[in-house]
């Protein structure tokens, strides 16, 4: 009986678990607040990954303090690079789709599918880039190169992550927006 009650004490596993869950809720709230200005999404995600890893490894001091320890400028730079690449891919796909469907060009169709493949690789690299940036302090292009290597090296996991992440985003957009 004493052994069971010891687990429910203030220093027991139950309250430690509740404290950790509360810390993750605070981290999620901070991340959402700092993602509201769209330009800071990259920096906010990088900080969230950094603070989340500290929480998982039981190295955290305070969630808010760990959130501020990351390099926000580097996160903004990676976000800017990935945003420009994403916009270029979007406009290329639209131009090739117009070329393929308006004139019935086979070359336009081939280019459209090739660019769509590049966009899938871009989406995979985007999943890894902020997590890699939170772990390693390196130049932006090297972060993106390492993210590409991780994306290709762990292809089955990347596909599952892409289905889960982007599928949830599409589902949320379709069913929870007006």
Give an account of the 3D structure.
The protein is mainly alpha-helical. Helices cover 83% and strands 0% of the residues. Helix 2 runs antiparallel to helix 3 and helix 6 crosses helix 7 (140-153).
Over all CA atoms, what is the radius of gyration? Answer: 21 Å
Structural class category: mainly alpha
Instruction: Report how far apart the termini are.
Output: 54 Å
Percent of residues in helices comes to: over 70%
Instruction: Give the number of DSSP strands.
Output: 0
Q: How would you spell out the order of helices and strands? A: HHHHHHHH
- Label the overall shape: elongated
Overall average residue pLDDT: 88
Q: How much strand content do the residues show?
A: under 5%
- What summary fits the major beta sheet? none
Q: Low-confidence parts lasting 5 or more residues at pLDDT below 50? A: none
Number of helices: 8
